[in-house]
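Tutorial, part two.
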Amino acid sequence: MKKQYIIPIFVPHLGCPNDCIFCNQKSISGQKKNMTKEETKKIIDDYLKSIKKEEAKIEIAFFGGSFTAIEPKRQEELLQVAYEYVKNGQVESIRISTRPDSIDKEVLKRLKKYKVKTIELGVQSANDYILKRAHRGHTFKEVKKASKMIRWNGFKLGHQMMVGLPESTRIDEINTAKALVKLKPKMVRIYPVLVVKNTKLEKEYKEGTYEPLSVVQAVEVCKEIVRIFADKNIDIIRVGLQSTEEISNPESKKSEVVAGPYHEAFRQLVESAMWYDAIVAKIKKLNMKVKEVEVTVNPIDANHVIGHKKENVIKLKETYDVNLILKQDENIKQGKSKIKITKTYTN
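Running the prediction step on this input gives:
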């Protein structure tokens, strides 16, 4: 099976009509200058040098700057560069990310011309008040309209949502996930809000009018959201911003993050928390005092069962006085498990 490779091309704030409260794309992406067709070609060529084509499914992805809000001539310049690699067989497909209110028939016609396969929409929330509070500049009505147009025109639809926006609650975020499920995306990204330098949110944080989620709070909400999408077989392609030199521990001098639920292994924390819940639920169903539990999973899931820095092993022992024994079996489907109670306490 070929491995998926993404060649990321960042177009920070290029064409974006809004200045969202949480956003400083140049900080988040590490991209300090606007993208040109020459720079785009150089980035693609550099990535291709390090990828063994026969082992890879390669996709060029335009991230970060509301791609379809760019002036059409600039869109075409960048798309033409990427399309040449699709035509000559070096790359399989192209993906873009954009705003819901920057999708119309002409835009989709242009993207189809250059064989764009996937369109991701920055949704953030299904609550219009939260969207207005975050200065998004669109409502959820635009999200629904754009999502339907994208699917009806044969593109793969992706959604991006956020957890911890100003005045957003756990219920708001659960409702957002449920609302997105109804729009039938093929994939989603879930981003806990980080307070980034030189944003309006940083100002609110320093004034004390915004309090970001803790890592624990963000994990608790995200695991519920992950379950909602997973139950509908929607591919969850990212949970948490990717760690970079700029997006790193706020204590680092090079970090652009001021505060918020940053963790270098955030997705693992979420998936480990979900495994912990499953094991505890199994134990609680039994009318006996469990001493040792044996969990057999696919090797891919092994680290998540144990938890980051063996967190699940430690928590089970400290909270329930239960020893966790992990076994691996390639015949077990990823995400599935066999849980067996191997020892109990007797009176």
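The mean pLDDT is 91. In part three we will examine how such features are distributed along the chain.
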